[in-house]
Design brief:
Blueprint lengths: L21 H12 L10 E6 L2 E4 L2 E5 L12 H14 L14 H14 L3 E5 L2 H12 L5 E5 L4 H9 L3 E5 L4 H9 L7 E6 L1 E2 L4 E2 L2 H10 L3 E5 L14 H4 L8 E5 L9 E5 L7 H4 L1 H4 L6 H14 L3 H20 L13 E6 L2 H14 L1 E2 L1 E3 L9 E6 L6 H18 L3
Parallel strand pairs: 3-14, 5-6, 5-7, 7-10, 10-11
Antiparallel strand pairs: 1-2, 2-3, 4-12, 8-9, 11-12, 13-16, 15-16
The structure holds 4'-deoxy-4'-aminopyridoxal-5'-phosphate (PMP).
The site of 4'-deoxy-4'-aminopyridoxal-5'-phosphate has 13 residues, from α4.
Amino acid sequence: IDEADRPVALAGGSPDLFSKFDPLIEQRRALLAHGQEDPFSLVMERVLSPTQAVCNGRETILLGTYNYMGMTFDPDVIAAGKQALEDFGSGTTGSRVLNGTYQGHRECEEALKEFYAMDHAMVFSTGYQANLGIISTIAGKGDYIVLDIDSHASIWDGCKLGDAEVVPFRHNDIDAMEKRLKRIPEGAGKLVILEGVYSMLGDIAPLKDMIRVAKENGAMVLVDEAHSMGFIGPNGRGVAEDQGCLDDVDFVIGTFSKSVGTVGGFCVSNHPKFEIMRLVCRPYVFTASLPPSVVATAATSIRKLMHGGNKRAHLWENSRKLHAGLKSRGFSLGTDEPQSAIIAVIMPDLERGAAMWEALLKEGLYVNLARPPATPANMTLLRCSLCAEHTADQVETILGMFERAGKAVGII
Ligand code: PMP
């Protein structure tokens, strides 16, 4: 047997705690034995622009980043980051509630309040921590969380960290949500958690109707708008803004790791008592704050996104063009019409999904391979996420690559 397969010997015959990963180790080995490049250990050796990089020695078009608005190479964003690095150093070495709140964190929160036209904004070190922190802190013992079954991992983990009862309902199913809400015992606190864009299939939620039903049943509402910020809605505030129901959302969660083009997370709210969160939210208190250069890039990017109308229009054009082109070439897609900047291409199984992923990489195209448990209904997906900086020519090139790879692998 392979040295790596040998179980670790522990006193008293106790199990090796790694043995639970054996099925996954085996699945990876089987996949790589087919001569495939490992889809989960790609290295970007050089990044040339928001849409191009050198990976595995090849110049590659990037169609699997969350750089929706292409802000990562914006000259003003880069200049702000450099200046903050010079002026404030490389890191804060402390918590937001102790020595870790710099001028830049405040400015970033001011930019968010303006962007969303809301009273309060709280910046976290990642979007993951924003969900973890807000959800676990506001919904505690005796409270109920009613959430879409396809919610992001950070939402599920936030539920787990808190002590509330967790009641999932079928994806985007308003009646199922209402039934769950009506079954909650009288007097219990209720939080409904939804997402604007669901990132696996790139579909949006019927937020207006869902939020109306949530409110009729006395629930507070949290919406994760990670994949819509900067792009969807007249001011880029997200799907709730687009559907005219942002005023009824109690908490918007977002991230800097997508349209904003850096790293960090946030919650914005009009709740009058919101500021108390800074003292009671453990994933905010017990971790170091973001480096000054990061909050400076975020604040600059957020302010520029307030005037991103032309870029938004071009991103929609890209989304429509890619969706129509893939559909007409016979690929099966996650949505009938393009609903966001994510177009998911459904693969028949993991093996052919990995083969297609590799064929595309060899063509010079990077997309995201997604598989269970991250995906709904055990699907293997090639997730394409578009950028406002993709040119119409690049989208044409991408379609040609999909066509050749799809024929070579036998998917179309
Ligand atoms: N929410 C959703 C819906 C997400 O897709 C993600 C990241 N993929 C996050 C939260 C977490 O964001 P971050 O990368 O800032 O941790």
